[in-house]
Amino acid sequence: MSVSPDRDLQASASERSGAKLPRHVAFIMDGNGRWATSRGLPRTEGHRQGLEALRNMIRHAGKVGIEVVTIYSFSSENWSRPETEVSFLMGLLRRFVQRDLSELHDANVRIRIIGGRNGLDAGILKLLQEAEELTSGNTGLELVVAFNYGARDEIIRAAQVLAQKVAAGEMRPEELTEAALTEQLDTRGLPDPDLIIRTSGEMRLSNFLLWQAAYSEFYFCDLLWPDFDAAAFDKALDCFCARDRRYGGLSAKTY
Ligand code: FPP
After folding, report:
1. Where are the strands (E) in 141-235, listed by range?
2. 109: closest CA among 72, 65, 146, 62?
3. Which residues are part of the catalytic machinery?
4. What is the pTM (predicted TM-score) of this model?
5. Can you say whether residue 198 is alpha, beta or left, with left for phi > 0 and alpha for psi between -120 and 50 degrees?
6. Disulfide check for 107: which of 3, 17, 53, 92 has CB 3.0–4.6 Å away?
7. Are 36 and 43 in contact (CB under 8 A)?
8. Alpha carbon distance, N-terminus to C-terminus of the chain
9. 180-204, pLDDT tens digit by residue?
């Protein structure tokens, strides 16, 4: 898998839009189940195809020069799915890490896992930690895997750490600032997502990166995740490049 930034492609994407590409793109990869059932296939086949779409998306992100990609691979609410589907998704994640890790490492991809770690299967936890450790020195695309992730849980865990510091007298309450909370989140050190893409026509965040999405641009498309390809990614990037980001201020065009 070649995912190192390709300068020519990066330039052409920027020129096409005449604007800056997002540094960080986050994905809610929705619609695997519908993709499968509409074809009379078991839902698990949709997840299998979803993994192929994920591989292609990572490749394309590297080619166009995106710095950080975050994927919502398993939410803290997904445990409520039927046991067979949960264990299939766990197996898929295991296979993804086992089969793709050396290729991702060779392609200079740095892997980071976000989400709650308490109560996770020890084997999966070990695999994820090994992937993080092996790739920790890499300098290419950063692939952030949101696993057992829920944004409210992430914020509460961060708030508890700060509350304990205040209780222990290590921190004054007025030192509990936006920056201090940001520093305790699983995403510490990462730029906020510039663009959040959700497939399958659903238009909600579903407890994904609630704090970090304060100024993100949203892109919703009707394609089901297994059908999300390089052309669809380019379309989303073009759309992002045409947006006027004001962060609560005025447009540069109005000065
Ligand atoms: C949403 O589709 C997708 C998920 C809950 C899991 C995302 C998983 C993948 C893209 C493939 C595997 C990747 C890894 C790293 C394990 P859905 O099942 O909610 O689809 P539906 O809304 O049509 O039912």
Report:
1. 142-149, 195-198, 217-220
2. 62
3. 30, 78
4. 0.91
5. beta
6. 3
7. yes
8. 45
9. 999 999 999 999 999 999 999 999 9
Contact 45, 58 (CB under 8 A): no
Domain 21-150+190-242 belongs in CATH node 3.10.180.10 = no
pLDDT tens for each residue of 209-251: 999 999 999 999 999 999 999 999 999 999 999 998 877 777 6
Could you tell me the two tokens for 92?
Answer: 């898929």
- Asked if residues 213 and 21 have their Cβ atoms less than 8 Å apart, the reply is no
Distance in Å, CA 49 to ligand 1 centroid: 10
Which protein residues are within 6 Å of ligand 1, measured from CB? Answer: 29-34, 47, 50-51, 54, 73, 78, 89, 92-93, 96, 200, 225
Two structure tokens written together for 176: 């509990």
Cβ neighbourhood burial of 7 (10 Å; 0-12, 13-18, 19+): exposed
How far is CA 151 from each of CA 70, 157, 185, 219, rounded to the nearest angstrom?
A: 13, 10, 9, 19
